[in-house]
Amino acid sequence: MERNFWGRLFTFVATRIIIIGILILIIVLAGFTAYDTASAYLMLNQALETRAEVVMKDGDATMLDKYFDKRMDESIIFLNDRFEDIEVETYNYNLDTQWLFPWFGKINATVKEQVEDITIKDAGEGVSIPQWDNGQKKVKMEKINGVWKIIDIKDEAS
């Protein structure tokens, strides 16, 4: 009878240790996933807002190097230079991140980007203000050397 007691005690303790170990593993994995998600979310918001600032206000394009991968087509980033000859004074920028989940160093995010109320300096009559590509976009991100970088942006319609 004493032998059966020790066997049952061992089984009880072993199962509790395994259950606690699994719970700790789940908590650690959830923490890393939350960290990656928050990091990517902040980087995505900063990247697209900085992109709008560089395109609209003719800012320093090297600021985008920390957000966008070098392999990415620059015409996508700079919207085919449609704001190049215009001096933008003010604009309202809104970004709504609708879906973002890191998975093995890659992210496919869905964002809704909107730039409106664009005013330009010295706007005479007949000067047309180009429009930003507002709407829902698919953004692909990849973790390169420990840093999230945008590797592609596509309108969801295409």
What does this structure look like?
The N and C termini lie far apart (73 Å). Strands 1-2-3-4 form a four-stranded antiparallel beta sheet, with helices on one face. β3 and β4 form a beta hairpin. It has helices at residues 2-57, 74-77; strands spanning 88-99, 106-120, 135-144, 147-155. The chain has two helices and four strands.
Features:
158 residues, alpha+beta, 4-stranded antiparallel beta sheet, 2 helices, rod-shaped
Specify Rg, calculated over alpha carbons.
Answer: 25 Å
Backbone shape: rod-shaped
Regions with little confidence, pLDDT below 50 for 5+ residues: none
Biggest sheet, strands in spatial order? 1-2-3-4
- Topology pattern, helix = H, strand = E: HHEEEE
Largest sheet: 4 strands, antiparallel
Residue fraction in strands: 25-35%
Number of separate helices: 2
The average pLDDT score comes to 86
Helix content: 25-40%
Distance between the termini: 73 Å
The gist of it:
The protein has 158 residues and is an alpha+beta fold. The protein has helices spanning 2-57, 74-77; strands spanning 88-99, 106-120, 135-144, 147-155. It contains 2 helices and 4 strands; from the N terminus they run ααββββ.
